[in-house]
Amino acid sequence: MIDQIILISTYIFAALLIIFTLLYYVYKQNRQSELTERNIEIAKEEGRHEPLSMYPVFGGSICLKCGSCACVCRAGDVIGYVEGKATLINATHCIGDGA
Q1: Neighbours of 66 (CB within 10 A)
Q2: How far is the C-alpha of 46 from the C-alpha of 60, rounded, in Å?
Q3: Taking 70 as the threshold, does the pLDDT of residue 49 lie above it?
Q4: Any idea where the domains of the chain sit in the sequence?
Q5: What string of DSSP letters covers 11-62?
Q6: pLDDT in the model for residue 37
Q7: What is the number of other CB atoms lying within 10 angstroms of the CB of residue 55?
Q8: Is the pLDDT of residue 59 over 70?
Q9: pLDDT value at position 82?
Q10: Each residue of 38-49: b (16+ CB within 10 Å) or e?
């Protein structure tokens, strides 16, 4: 009987840990999306939203939502994520390196 209680409590603990991890991940993604949207609005107000030269183009079916484009971008603040999809934030900062 005690073994069953320990087993059940272990399963409950594991399930709660998984649920907490998933909720934290969703919260983090939503927060990042909100920050990116805010940065886009600031860039539009300051006139930094339209690219001056070459810039990355993100297609709906091409984007794998992996984040590697933002990681390899040497300009730093050009690419952000809104609802998990890549988007341009400060397009005028793009140096067009094609990485």
Answers
A1: 9
A2: 27
A3: no
A4: 2-93
A5: HHHHHHHHHHHHHHHHHHHHHHHHHHHHHHHHHHHTT-SS-SS------TTT
A6: 85
A7: 17
A8: no
A9: 79
A10: ebbeebeeeebb
DSSP state of 65: S
Please determine, for residue 1, whether its predicted confidence score (pLDDT) is greater than 60. Answer: yes
**Burial class, 15, CB count within 10 angstroms (exposed 0-12 / middle 13-18 / buried 19+):** exposed
Phi, psi of 72 (to 5 degrees): -90, -10
Taking the C-alpha atoms of residue 37 and residue 35, their distance in angstroms, rounded to an integer, is: 5
Token readout for 69 is 């484009």
pLDDT, tens only, 4-39: 999 999 999 999 999 999 999 999 988 988 888 888
User: Phi and psi for 65 in degrees, rounded to 5?
Assistant: 60, 35
The pLDDT of residue 17 is 97
Check if the beta carbon of residue 39 is closer than 8 Å to that of residue 52: no
